[in-house]
Design brief:
By secondary structure, the chain is mainly alpha-helical. The protein has helices spanning 20-35, 37-62, 67-90, 103-136, 143-152, 166-173, 180-209, 213-221, 234-242, 261-275, 279-284, 290-314, 324-335, 340-353, 362-371, 373-385, 395-406, 414-438, and strands at residues 94-98, 225-229, 251-253, 258-260. The strands form 2 sheets. The protein has a two-stranded antiparallel sheet. The chain has a two-stranded antiparallel sheet with strand order 3-4. The radius of gyration is 21 Å and the shape is globular.
Length: 442
């Protein structure tokens, strides 16, 4: 019998039925808020954790090996440390806007937000800008304002560097150069962001012209006024982003389970930032831990239930893809419903496996990025861009929705997000971008 805390050896592929808890959790997230909102509101924590325990039971009882579970929990802690610390620190910075925004100003704001996400990460940019975004559109804000904010700032915008971007950070830790993504992704980033901003502008102009004429004239004549408080907390934001450069193996604990030192530093920076923030700033931001708690409870279930699914995928038997464009759409399809960081890693592993190279060898990863860059580009684009495909494709998505809901802004349901926005608007643009950069001559 294999001891529970043995070091994992060769990958043992789970049975196909072990994807059922993950599928069940996705269905619950999608349907229960519509069909049984009261039940879901009061019991979503139990549902998420209960389904996660099914995966733990499989590894404990059937495999007699909890190492994959502990490694998953390490990844979850690192994920939540990054998400949570950025949420807390940006909640200590208050950006106030007076005045109603015109469509062209909204378009500029979204493009600026995409560039900011490249520097401070999608979570940092989302938490810093979502409240001003709601405020500057308060008289005519609709669902598409929130959805396109998620598309552009919470996902596609942060695709150029590993700073604050978990999927690219995973690649950086394994040997993909820090500047490799900037050098290779910027054309596809620019095209995707430009097309999304252009589509938003068309929709926003239509919405603007439906407003009363008096409001239109008022918006066109009025100038926005911006005020900020708490900019010193950018220091703690820099500390959080700086910890991403620490060695991956810098941990405290045992071989079976260890806490990343970077996660501990992130938590400390967030605690100091929170304790040194005046109450008035938190009140102005309507700050509460509700959104990050909701993300934490849902993603513990997602991380645990997706562990068997990722083992099946990395086993190689489920993959019959070969071209960069196929890797782009496959990693994108999974990233839309899984956290995009492990999705990136799974498909990078699969792509390198075709060349008998190991994702755990830094030199081999660097060589693969140099000699087979189209595949790394495809996985990077797919995992990052398609994280906008649903509320659970990327951590900031749910937090943006939760903040918007708290501000009494109507947001689409899980199915509504897919049916009204993701499939008819986001997918054609991302398909076109993929074809332009991966479908010709590869």
């Amino acid at each position: 019998m294999t001891p529970f805390f043995a070091v994992a050896g060769a990958l043992v592929e789970p049975p196909a039925w072990m994807v059922l808890p993950f599928c069940a959790l996705l269905l619950c997230i999608a349907m229960l808020p519509l069909l049984a909102s009261g039940f879901w509101e009061h019991h979503f924590k139990k549902v998420s954790l209960g389904l996660g325990l099914c995966a733990i039971a499989y590894y404990a009882i059937d495999r007699h090996d909890l190492v994959p579970v502990f490694h998953t929990l390490e990844e979850y802690i690192g994920f939540m440390a990054l998400i949570g610390s950025l949420f807390v620190i940006t909640g200590s910075i208050n950006v106030r806007v007076k005045g109603e925004s015109a469509p062209w100003k909204n378009a500029v704001f979204l493009f600026f937000g995409a560039m900011l996400a490249t520097v401070v990460g999608t979570t940092g940019a989302s938490m810093l800008l979502i409240r001003p975004w709601i405020s500057m559109n308060k008289y005519r804000i609709t669902s598409y304002h929130i959805v396109f904010f998620i598309f552009i700032i919470s996902n596609v915008g942060g695709s150029l560097t590993p700073a604050g971007n978990p999927p690219l950070y995973m690649g950086f830790l394994r040997g993909v150069g820090f500047w490799w993504t900037l050098q290779n992704l910027w054309p596809s980033w620019l095209l995707a962001v430009t097309l999304l901003v252009a589509l938003f502008y068309v929709l926003d102009v239509r919405n603007f012209h439906r407003a009363p004429r008096q409001l239109q004239e008022h918006v066109e004549e009025e100038h926005e006024h911006w005020k900020t408080r708490g900019l010193l907390h950018l220091v703690w934001l820099g500390v959080v982003l700086g910890t991403m450069l620490l060695p991956r193996d810098l941990k405290i604990g045992t071989e079976a389970f260890a806490l990343p030192v970077s996660a501990l530093i992130m938590a400390a920076a967030a605690l100091i930032s929170y304790k040194t923030t005046p109450v008035q700033v938190h009140e102005a931001n309507h700050f509460s831990f509700g959104p990050v708690k909701e993300v934490g409870w849902l993603f513990i279930g997602i991380f645990l239930t997706m562990r068997p699914a990722l083992d099946i995928l990395q086993g190689g038997h489920a993959l019959t893809i070969s071209t960069p464009l196929e890797f782009y759409f496959s990693s994108g399809a999974l990233s839309a419903f899984l956290d995009n960081a492990p999705t990136y890693l799974a498909f990078l592993t699969a792509a390198m496996g075709r060349e008998h190279a190991s994702v755990d060898e830094v030199a081999q990863v660097a060589q693969f990025a140099s000699s087979h860059g189209a595949y790394v580009l495809a996985v990077s684009m797919g995992a990052n861009f398609f994280g906008a495909g649903s509320y659970i494709g990327n951590g900031p998505n749910f937090m943006v929705k939760a903040i918007a809901d708290k501000a009494h802004v109507h947001t689409p349901s899980f199915p509504g997000y897919l049916i009204k926005y993701s499939v008819p608007m986001l997918l054609p643009i991302l398909a076109f971008v993929g074809w332009v950069f991966l479908g010709r001559g590869h």
